[in-house]
Amino acid sequence: MSSKDNISFIEELQDDLRGPPVQFTKEEEKKILRRIDIRLIPLLSILYLISFLDRGNVGNARIAGMTEDLHLTGTQYNIALTMFFIPYALFEIPSNIVLKILRPRIWIPTIMLAWGTVMTLMGIVQNYQGLVVARVFLGVAEAGFFPAASFLLTCWYPRHELQLRIGYFYGAGALSGAFSGLLAFAIEKMNGVGGLAGWRWIFILEGLITVVAAMVTPFFMNNDPASARFLSEDEKKFVLWRLQVEQGRVGADTESEEPFKWKYFWAAVQDWKVWLSIVVYWGNAMPIYGFIYTVPVVINELGYSSANAQLLTIPIYVAAVIGTITAAYLSDKYHTRSPFIIGPQLFGAIGFVVVMAIPKGKYPGAVYGSLFIIAIGLYTTITGVVSWTGNNLAGSWKRNIGMAIQISLGNLGGAVGTNIYLEKEAPEYWLGFGFSLGILLCASAVAMALRVALQRINAKRDAMSAEEIHSRYTREELWEMGDASPLFRYTL
């Protein structure tokens, strides 16, 4: 059964599951969706841009003089990068559990305030040890944002409207690479102001921006459709109904009303789909974090000045944003995920082959061009990986915890990615480029296997009629089964 057939199948069940509580025309539905987009997407995009600025600006600070002032060796710099990812991965699952208890409007600004404070204080570190400690606390504070934002979107949008929305806000993360280079270029001009080096001002000013954003966020953030002030009661019922129909849960409690049960936690931990998705995620996380922290250095080592290297990162990230949004739009339009994961992964792999094959000192322009291919391949993939997992886990708690497990263990790949670009291998970076190529090919193979497995499960469920399903199970039993329900169809 194709994804579009899946939609038709669910629509056939709507009479059994109960029709919409309120009728809206197609035009009215579009207006409701547009209002939701306006309330959610710009806010999450800005916050994610800020989070990426704060975790990635150390690469800009490095070529602005931080390495010399703190007397860092190449190995120490890599260790400082790595120490961010260990707490970042460990705290993502607990953070998403707290998210469900405290709700996004409280929890997200709280962790933002914490990491903004840490980032600001990073501007006064005096040695390697201080930098490592600051990076550890930054990882702890930032851990919850991406899984929280991704889960929040699944509480508002049916699955085939999801990736484009994740693409918008994740595209802001890619755009942060461009914005970071431009901002760092400007802030470096403050070198000597207040007796502080320019790289210190990069940390201080970007940290203060985060603190201010944290203070205003609660006034603009909405937890879920049921509590949204900008929707009427009829609109709330309709938005919730759309989500429940897709999962065969019409009449069940709303997402926010479901109490936590340990069986939901273990259901997510034991789900093989989650574990395969982690390997697919590594195809993004391992190469991309090495890329983020190293690309200004790679460009710098091609013979460009530090300032020009900052500026030359901008077009690369703009291209990545365009690729991310385009792939997300097409993935939602055609109701499929895996082609828009596997395709970009293979495209990024081509970029790594090219960059390794070109003599660096001889053709700097060609090396620079290959960085575009890599960026488009890496950034385009992640929205599909996260959306695919969010689409294929039900109900609310299992999806929340499963996405946190995927992102948590997936982001441990960042600890690997920050240690594969070795200073002694510059400018060839054989280990960094070669390892990235290998993990991309491995991840794309696992994604293909996952698609085949889900396709077979869907085919078995297709063999059962709606009447047969309802004769075997009560509605309550089907709700409890989540994505194991024979009514549920996996997105391919």
What does this structure look like?
This protein is mainly alpha-helical. It has one domain (25-248, 261-483): Growth Hormone, Chain: A (Up-down Bundle), CATH 1.20.1250.20. The chain has helices at residues 3-17, 26-69, 74-90, 92-102, 104-122, 128-142, 145-154, 162-187, 198-216, 233-246, 262-269, 272-301, 306-333, 339-357, 364-391, 396-411, 413-417, 430-462, 466-472, 475-481. Helix 4 (92-102) crosses helix 5 (104-122) and helix 13 runs parallel beside helix 15. The radius of gyration is 23 Å and the shape is globular.
Structure summarized in a few sentences:
By secondary structure, the chain is mostly helical. The protein has helices spanning 3-17, 26-69, 74-90, 92-102, 104-122, 128-142, 145-154, 162-187, 198-216, 233-246, 262-269, 272-301, 306-333, 339-357, 364-391, 396-411, 413-417, 430-462, 466-472, 475-481.
Strand portion? under 5%
CATH topology, what is it called? Growth Hormone, Chain: A
The helical percent reads over 70%
Summed up, the domain count is: 1
H/E series = HHHHHHHHHHHHHHHHHHHH
The CATH superfamily is identified as MFS general substrate transporter like domains
GO molecular function, one term: transmembrane transporter activity
Transmembrane segments: 36-53, 79-99, 106-126, 132-156, 168-187, 199-221, 274-299, 311-330, 342-359, 365-389, 401-421, 433-454
InterPro entries: MFS, MFS_dom, MFS_trans_sf
Keywords: Membrane, Transmembrane, Transmembrane helix, Transport
